[in-house]
Amino acid sequence: MQTKSRGRQRGLTLIELMVGMLITAIVLVIGVPSLYNLYMTTRMANAANSVLAHLQSARMEAVTRNMRVTVCPSADGDTCGAGQTDEGEWDWSQGYIVATQDDGGNLLEVLRRVDAEELAGLDIDSCGRTRFVFRSDGSATGTNGRVRIIDPGDSDTFRIITVNAVGRAYVAGEGTDPACP
User: Fold this and answer.
1) What are the tens digits of pLDDT across the range 114-155?
2) Cα(135)–Cα(150) distance, rounded to whole angstroms?
3) CATH numeric code, 14-171
């Protein structure tokens, strides 16, 4: 009498495969939105740090060069001016420049350019300010101003950069109202 010996089975049954796919789907459904939020939060933090660094750099350049330095939205990277958002705010998401200027407001030399690719996917405006100008003593012209960086997909996710009259630029803390003053 001969008995058939069964060899080791290899592979997965259909049930095991379906359970594995279900677990993978659940992990993805939970994880992907969290990864998107992390991605947008990181992008906004990077954009806020970049704008803040350029504002602080402009203030330093104004003192160092003993002349006015401006930071303004720029679509072409050479002149101040960019389109406006639907709310009528100046659109900084098209890019901005840091440039020296004379007392008449004419740009003399572009020191730094930030193009739209670095800011893609974010709404950035300056609450009606067309530019931030730093005097040779480091103070800013005008009153306190703001730059808002907002996630267009979630208006509750934002960063606010404030420039006060003495020229100090800083990222506003949690709980700051994103509305323009």
Assistant:
1) 988 888 788 888 888 888 999 999 999 988 888 888 888 777
2) 29
3) 3.55.40.10
